[in-house]
Amino acid sequence: APPPPRELTESGAGVFLADLDASAAIHVLSHLSPVERARVAAVRRSERAALKSPDIVVEDDPALVTGSADYYDGVVYGSSPPAMNSPSSPPSSSRPAPRREPRWSSGRLSMGTATHVEGGGHLADAAWREIDLRGAATANSLCTLRGVACGAVRLLDVTGSRLAKRGDILDLARESPQLRELRCGSLGDNGKWSVRDVDAVFEACPSLTLFECDVGVKIDSRGDEERYEESLGEVRYVLGDRRMRVRRLKIHSGCVDSAHVVFECAARAARAGRLRSVDASWSLKLGCGAARGCAAMMEKHGGGFPLRRLAMRKANIKDPGAMSLAGAIRRAAEAVAAEEKESRRKEWSGRYAAEYESPHGDVRDPVCELRWLDLGSNHINDPGAAALGDALGPKVPITRLNLRDNQVGVLGCRSIGYGVARCGATLRRLDLAHSGFGCQGAVALATALATAHSPCALRVLQLGFNSIGAVGAEALAAALTSGSFRRLEHLDLACNVLGPDGVAALATLLEPIDSDDSDESGDATSADDGGSTLSDDGKRGAGLYSLDLAVNNAGGDGERGGIRALMKALETNTSLRMLNLRGNDLTPEHAGDVAEMLCENVTLTQLNVGYNKIYNEGAWELAEALSENPSLLGLDIQRNEISDDGAEWIRGLLAANSTIEEVDMRSNQLSPEVVESFGKSFGERVNARWQQEPPKVEKNDENMAARRTMVGEGGGRVAAKKAE
């Protein structure tokens, strides 16, 4: 549609939507969100009439009409119901007058057998035909749509709207007789639809041809055979209905036998494009038998591995089960590669060749669609992890691999590292935390990662709780600073044994990287794939976004070399936004090193130095440095034995710097009076709950008095840094 006339837009005068011709009005509506369209409809009567949704006419079941004055044979839901006949005046004809009810009164809609629409404004179809509320639907917005749009809506998309409730969506569907597509996946923890909910949606809205949602099914034990078969029948019904598009199927409980049935139905539905993800986590009864059944059914009925996401956390899977899944993934990828090779051969030869025959007995082309594989918290050792690493390759489009809380060793780390290098164009998140492979495993992983010869898409690397020391840190730093991993943004090395030397080795990861030199491969990272959030200006130089070094003994025995090297690199770093140094035995001297960095760095937004020993002196150093810092938003100084004297410096900091949004001072040694005064003065900017008992200090303690005098006179390294 053409834009509005130039004379209307250049005159500076406002133009009402109803005063434009239809093509210009439709052009304007295409640039408005559904909420904005609803606001336009409330401007004037003209706009209300133009955007008025058609009236919904529902004819009641004749069996319910008894001839009594209490029943009517027609119900009309309109945007502007006319005045009702007074009870004393008879209707104009012998036929009972249609009862007009507000649109939100949906009780009688279930009684209708013939529903149609009448009337409506000339812009109603353009305004309400397709409503996109992805990530923005709330109870209020859905209620508004029921009042203005339900007679014209054909497509409603509320995917990712965690504030939307299933009951509100069902009410809107019930009152939308022309609704054809309803998409409501990823609604949060309470957004899974039961089979009974799905039945209610189709019963309330018979016009639906596509319903996309997340479904949860509880598989009862074999003890109650009738209920067991009924629950399996629910799975077959949901995955077999051609109108259904299941984004995520969550199986609660279950056993090996039921897993075979579920994965058979899942393979067929995924191959037909009606299912994306299966989550069979938290069921210790599954074990390796369920993993073998999944692999067999994917190959037999899915023609490879058609599932995009498979989660089997805490499912008692061991090496045989992991090896079965790895074999299915590897064979599917090999079949895809063979089919592509055959297609290229036919194209190059220019001669007719026989159709490709799938090794899975499927006349259709083989598929390998696996994006996410989550096998965390199982009993997978080196053989199973090595098989999974060997299965990864260019034809496996995996973006996330989670093997945390298994027993991955050196062999598994090496195989997974080579797999990451092979499928580097797609893999964005790797989680090997809680595996305990130590320095040898870290060196093996780093050696394999260094073999990548092309830019890798890896964004998130989680290696916490693995007993990695300085040697492993040096190997990882050398591999990750190569040109292949310049897109790495989140590195988690918490709860290892890096020590000062290991922390110093990681300083090279914070050295500036020119944006021109960084790779341009891959498209933008979505939130689901673990992408980062950019700064306020929308730009950020290549390099780490967050670094977690909590509980690594970085300041052990007062050694300052590691922290000093890390802070020196951060002075010129422009990419890091979050730094976690929690529980590293830091002293006031280490706090001074951090404070000197804060005098130079103007991009860090979150700093955690909680559970250390910086005391009042360290709090003063940080407060002095942050008094003029323009970027830091959050400071965590929990459990640092800070008393009322140190709290005064934090009070002055919050008064001087309004950029800081929150300071966490829990579990220190503040008196109740100071905690109360913080709450009154700064509200939610200070969290000072749960204080420890304040230290007992004698009134004539000369050392403490001398220390307060030194701080009060403004001495210290930050003052010297600012004086420079």
Describe the structure.
With 724 residues, this protein is α/β, with parallel strands linked by helices. It has 24 helices and 25 strands. The strands form three sheets. The protein has a 19-stranded parallel β-sheet that branches. It has a four-stranded mixed β-sheet with strand order 3-2-1-4, with no helix packed on it. Helix 19 runs parallel beside helix 20 (615-626). It starts with 5 loop residues before the first helix and ends with a helix. The model is unreliable at 60-114, 516-541 and 704-715 (pLDDT under 50).
Descriptive tags:
single chain, about 725 residues, alpha/beta, four-stranded mixed β-sheet, globular
Concise synopsis of the structure shown:
The chain is 37% helix and 13% strand.
Mean pLDDT: 82
Query: How many strand elements?
Result: 25
Distance between the terminal alpha carbons, to the nearest Å? 63 Å
Overall morphology: globular
Assembly state? single chain
Unreliably modeled segments: 60-114, 516-541, 704-715
What is the strand content? 5-15%
Helix content: 25-40%
- Secondary-structure content class: alpha/beta
Tell me the number of helical segments per DSSP (H or I, 4 or more residues long): 24
Secondary structure: elements and pairs:
Blueprint: H1 6-10, H2 22-29, H3 34-41, H4 45-50, E1 55-60, E2 75-77, E3 99-101, E4 112-118, H5 124-128, E5 130-132, H6 139-148, E6 155-157, H7 166-174, E7 181-184, E8 192-193, H8 195-204, E9 210-219, H9 225-240, E10 244-253, H10 256-271, E11 275-279, H11 287-302, E12 304-305, E13 309-311, H12 319-349, E14 367-368, E15 372-374, H13 382-391, E16 400-402, H14 410-422, E17 429-431, H15 438-449, E18 460-462, H16 470-480, E19 490-492, H17 499-505, E20 546-548, H18 561-570, E21 578-580, H19 588-600, E22 606-608, H20 615-626, E23 634-636, H21 644-656, E24 662-664, H22 672-682, E25 686-687, H23 702-712, H24 717-723
Parallel strand pairs: 2-3, 5-6, 6-7, 7-9, 8-9, 9-10, 10-11, 11-13, 12-14, 13-15, 15-16, 16-17, 17-18, 18-19, 19-20, 20-21, 21-22, 22-23, 23-24, 24-25
Antiparallel strand pairs: 1-2, 1-4
Helix pairs in contact: 3-6, 6-7, 7-8, 9-10, 10-11, 11-12, 12-13, 13-14, 14-15, 15-16, 16-17, 17-18, 18-19, 19-20, 19-24, 20-21
